Prior knowledge:
Blueprint: E1 4-5, H1 8-16, E2 21-23, E3 30-34, H2 38-48, E4 57-59, H3 66-69, H4 75-84, E5 89-94, H5 101-104, E6 109-113, H6 118-125, E7 131-132, H7 147-154, E8 160-162, E9 174-179, E10 182-187, H8 193-200, E11 204-205, E12 229-232, H9 235-241, E13 247-251, E14 261-266, H10 273-288, E15 294-298, H11 305-316
Parallel strand pairs: 1-8, 2-8, 4-6, 5-9, 10-11, 12-15, 13-14, 13-15
Antiparallel strand pairs: 2-3, 3-7, 4-7, 5-6, 9-10
This protein binds threonylcarbamoyladenylate (TXA) and magnesium ion.
Organism: Psychroserpens ponticola
Keywords: ATP-binding, Cytoplasm, Nucleotide-binding, Nucleotidyltransferase, Transferase, tRNA processing
Amino acid sequence: MSILSTDISKAVAILNAEELVAIPTETVYGLAGNIFSEKAIKSIFETKKRPFFNPLIVHIPSVEVLTTIASYIPAKAKLLADVFWPGPLTLVLPKNSTIPDIITAGKDTVAVRIPNHPMALELLNHLDFPLAAPSANPFGSISPTTAQHVNDYFKEDIKMVLDGGACQRGIESTIIGFEGEEPVIYRLGSTSIEEIENVVGSIQIKNKKDIAPNAPGMLDRHYAPSTQTILVDDLSKAVEEHSNKRIGVLAINKSLEHDAIAFQIVLSESTDLQEAASKLYDALHQLDKQDLDIIITERFPDFGLGKSINDRLQRATVNK
Ligand code: TXA
Ligand code: MG
């Protein structure tokens, strides 16, 4: 049975009844619930098997709503919101006292963004409350970039996936927090560092869990296939080393010939980093279904979205 639907009024009714709907965004699908409903928010954590110490992102329809979510907006946060919203950038700001502790894991900051997807925006405009929406995958596994991915994970657990097609960006939002007035990157994502630095000048990255206690979601192992996965600079060499196995390959721009390769995906023949990012998770989902002994992934050039893709591949390849 499929729970896919394009009916926005049905999604509104389910969310008004304090239940969950998976929603499309430009980055990945989110598992959404009313931020003010304890029942809905608890069910997000239970459905994902997500630990309560990991706070959620609040999704709002317009920048006017921001003042009801955050108690203070640094000048550079306002600037970033003006330039990048709606879009794949999340701001972590001091929270308004009306935001429930379960959303922020008891922290005094709240993460917030305006998603850039027409159906998500229409849905938010039909609701009297913002939506908390973590990626719609079980904790630690590969994020969903199609409605079908969510259906495969959660068809027994939720009533509906609002089907908005394949996500155009394909990697989660970039998360930015503030140390006083200065922005800091907590999570690399679909808005590149270069784009951000063009707006606010040079910016520090603090995305390791030991140096970024402010971003508890930055676990070493995440986005991970269940098949053993490695990240390499030299694909042919790695394939040779593992040639006694049934190998899956995730290549940047050209395919390899080798008898040991049972399944192979090329992310972008023209090395277009946005095209590669948008296909990344679907490729990992497909590779994970092929009954392989090992998945070998190729490291991207370390700039622009390549940096964000490498971050996800790095976390996908940390052993259990
Ligand atoms: O693109 C996205 O951001 C997607 C779509 C659905 O919007 N959402 C998403 O949510 O990736 P999630 O829950 O998978 O990741 C949220 C991240 C976690 O790493 C969490 O720790 C961090 O945001 N976060 C949330 N609130 C925070 C806070 N107050 N301070 C620091 N980090 C926070
Ligand atoms: Mg996630």
